[in-house]
Amino acid sequence: MLSEGTWREISRCISCGACNEGCSLFHASERKESLGPRSRINIVRAINTKVAQLSINSIEHLYLCGSCTVCNKYCPLNIDIAGLMIRIREELIRAGYVPPYNIARMRRNIEVNDHPWDSWDKGKWIQVRRSARPKKHLFFAGCWTTRSQDMANSAYMVAKKVVKDDLGLLESAEPCCGYPLKIAGHVDAYKEVLMRARSKIEGFEDIVTPCISCKESFKESGLSSHYLLEMVPEDLEAIKRRSGKAALIGSCRDSFTDKARNILEIAGYDVVDLPDWCCMDCGFSLAYTISQDLMKSVASKIMETASDLGADMLVIVDPFSYYLFSSIEGGKIEIRDIYSILLDSFRL
How far is the C-alpha of 10 from the C-alpha of 47, rounded, in Å? Predict the structure, then answer.
């Protein structure tokens, strides 16, 4: 079922369970073994050695992963567990196994609607007046940013200040970069969707986006793309000092989390350190597609952890994460996106 290289990597696992300590699904379920990375590796091992049969439930289980790579840091053998799970999904699909229904539906929506959902107007967030002259730079919101309309607007305003030029907008015609298909194992479909997206936007010199996955996908296609948070200058000047304790849910890419932390500290916030497993970005949209309730429980657990550590505000970097955390009702902690903090506190 699996390639020799993938099986060799799985066979290196000693099943120590250290990886579980970096998994948000494991912690949010009160350390339920079946939701940790070790369980997913053991399922694949049992199926490949014919100790167990590949079932609908076991296939679905392999998609309950955020591809966040935090588990990799805990592995004593330096196995790329997150990357391995993507390879396993890809090889299962190539072998003819059908992914879970919700994943198949997501693929169809991306290919037909240019976003992962059955219906959504991707231009709904736009509240700005635009000039008619041609633009060199494109502000590419990304699918999840358009679902978080206040974050989309604050990110757009920051982009205008950072780029210091008019930005093009594709409004409702903005395509999907296809990244969810990549981590779902639909590699061929991902490449097709990405090339289709490229054909719609290659007239712009540069793409600016608040979504790290969109940035990386477009860069992979050969386009000049920039992650908005990367473009924010280091020598920020605070125009209004803030107070309070802020916990940060950064991207699972450490360098960008460090940048966001620096922004909060310059603004005057006391930054509360969260455990490693309290990280989230759009890789978790795959698990959200399988079980919204499970991912909401993860967000609730992180909010509870931040509150217990004394934070009165949770600052989010990633658009999917902001959408998810903002959907939690009855939370005891304020939810803000990093771009609204930039607009409130700094001269850009």
Answer: 12
pLDDT digits (tens, 9 = 90+) for 88-122: 999 999 988 888 999 999 999 999 999 998 888 88
What's the CA gap between 141 and 214, in Å, rounded? Answer: 9
Instruction: Tell me the pairing of strands 270-272 and 245-249.
Output: parallel
Question: For residues 64 and 187, what is the distance between their CA atoms, to the nearest angstrom?
Answer: 18
Residue 220 · residue 329 · CB < 8 Å: no
The per-residue DSSP string of 237-290 comes to EESS---SEEEEE--SSHHHHHHHHHHHHHHT-EEEPPPTT----GGGHHHHHH
Write down the pTM of the prediction.
0.93
CATH for 237-347, options being 3.40.50.2000, 3.90.180.10, 3.40.50.720, 3.40.50.1860: 3.40.50.1860
The pair of three-digit structure tokens given for residue 136, joined into one six-digit string: 């060199």
